[in-house]
Amino acid sequence: MRRTATWIAVAAGLIVFGLARLPLERSLETAQQSAYLRAESLNLGLRDQLGQLSYAAALSGFRSLVAAFLWIEAHTAWEQTAWGRMAGLFRTVTSLQPRSLVYWDLSSWHMAWNAAIAAYQNPKEPSEFLRRRAEREYQLLGKEFLEQGIANNPDRYILQERLGVLLRDKFSDHAGAAEAFGKAASMEGAPPYIKRMAVYELASVEGKEQEAHEKLREIYDLGPDERKPRVLTLLHELEEKLGIPENQRRVPVAPE
Amino acid sequence: MIRRISAIGAVTWTELVRLKVFYFIVIFALLVIGNSFFLARFSFEEEFQMLKDIALGAMSIFSALLAILASATLLPKDLEDRTIYTILAKPVSRFEYLLGKLAGVFLLVTLAVILMGGVFAIVLLLRTQIVLHATAAELGGMPAAELQAALQKVRAAGYDPALFSAGLVILVKAWLLAAMTVFISTFATSAIFTTITAFAAYFIGHLQSTARDYWMAGGDLGPVAKIILALVALIFPDLQAFNLVDGVVTGTSIPPGVLFKTLALGCGYIAVYTALAAAVFQTREL
Which bin fits A45, alpha (ψ -120 to 50), beta or left (φ > 0)? Predict the structure, then answer.
C-alpha cells in the first residue's frame, strides 16, 4: 500500500515538475535559438544522406562530430577528385552544421573553383560546349552554397564577402558583387577594405559612375590611410569620365 | 550528515576508480592528439573547427557513457555484494546513502571532464602556437599591420572562451544523466535493465523538445498521439537544451543569461531526479 502511494506520488511529481518546467524550457529554447545555439530539427531527407547510424548519432546530440567525420570523408573524395560525391557530402555537412562558416565557405570554394576548373579541363569530354556547361554548373553550385550559408548566417559578413568575390571573379557580375560587398561592409566586424571593394565593383557598372564617384570621394575624404592607389586611380578616371570641373576634383592629376 | 555522505561518496569514488574507468581518458587523448596530426593536412580554419568538433563531441560521448554506466551499477552491485545491508545497518539513512553514491559519481565525472578538457586545451594551444609560428615565418616579409591581422585570424580560429562554457554544460548534462540513472536504478531489478532504460531515456531526451513542440502546437493529432507526446514532454528531460556544443564549435558564444538558465535547468533536473530517487528508494524492499 505504501509502495503504491509512493509510486503515485512519484508519477505526480514527475508530471508536476514537467508542467512547471514547460515555460522555462520553451523560453530557453527560444533564447538558445536566438543566440544561434540550437539548430533546427533534422529532416527525414537528411536520414537518407547520412545513413541510419550517423542519423541516430546526429539525433543524439553529436551533429558536430558527425559533420567533422563527413568533412574528412569529403577531403578524401577531393584527393580522388570525386566532385559529385564531394558535393553530396558538402550538402550533408552544411545541413548538419549550418552555422559553420568554414564549411559553407570551403564547400563553395571547392565547387566554384576546383570542381569548375576540373570540369572545364576534363580530358574525357571532347565537346567544349559541354565542358563549359559543366564548369558553369559547378560555379552555380558554389554560389548556391554561399547563398544558403548567408541565409543561415545573416549576422556574419564573411560569406557575403565571399559571394562578392565569386560574383566578381567567376560571373563578372560587378553589380551583384558591389551589392554583396556593400552588405558585407555594413555588418558588424567587417574590415574597412570590404567597403573599398564594393566601390571598386560599383565603378565597373555601366550607369553607376556617379554613385561610385560619390562613394569614392567619401572614402578619399576619410583621410590619407584610405587613399589607396586604386582609390586614387579610379577617382581620377571617374572625374575624367564624368567631366568634373578641375577645381572640384580630388585627384586632378593621374596618379603614377 | 555531510560527513556520512562524504564518506560514502569517497568509497564510491574509490570503487569506481578501481574499475579502471579512467583508461578511456587515454583513448580520448589518443583520439584528440592523433587527429590533430592528421588534421594538420587541412587549412588552419578547417583544422581548428574539426579539432573542436571531435574533442567536444568525444567529451560529450565519454562523459555521458561514464555517467550512465557508473551510476547504473551502483545500487545493483551493492545489493549483490550485500554491502548495502552493512551500510544501512549503521546510523545512515537511505537518503544519505543515495546522496553519497551520487556524490561519488559526480566527483568521478567532474574529474573526467576536467582531464579531457585539459588534454583538449593543451592540444589546441600547441596547434595554435605551431600555426602562429608557421604563419609568422611565411608572412615575415609582409607589412606589420597585415601580419598582425593574419596572426589575429589564427588566434581567433584557435582560442575561444566559449569552449569553457561548453565544457561546463557538458559536465552538468553528465550530472543530470547520472541523477536520472540513479533514479531508474532505484526501481530497476538489474544493472542491465537500468543501463538500457537510461540509454533509451537519453535518446528520447534528445527528441523531447520535438515532442513538446508538436504537443503544444496541437494540430490534427489524435488523442492517443497527444497523450504519448505529452508524456514524453513531461516525463523526459530536454537534453537538447544542453547540446550547445554544435553552436560553440562554429564560433557562437553563449550569452551569460542563456548559460545561467541552462545550468539552472540542469540543477533543477538533478534536484528533482534525486528527490524522486530518494522517495522510491525509501520504500524499496531490500
Answer: alpha
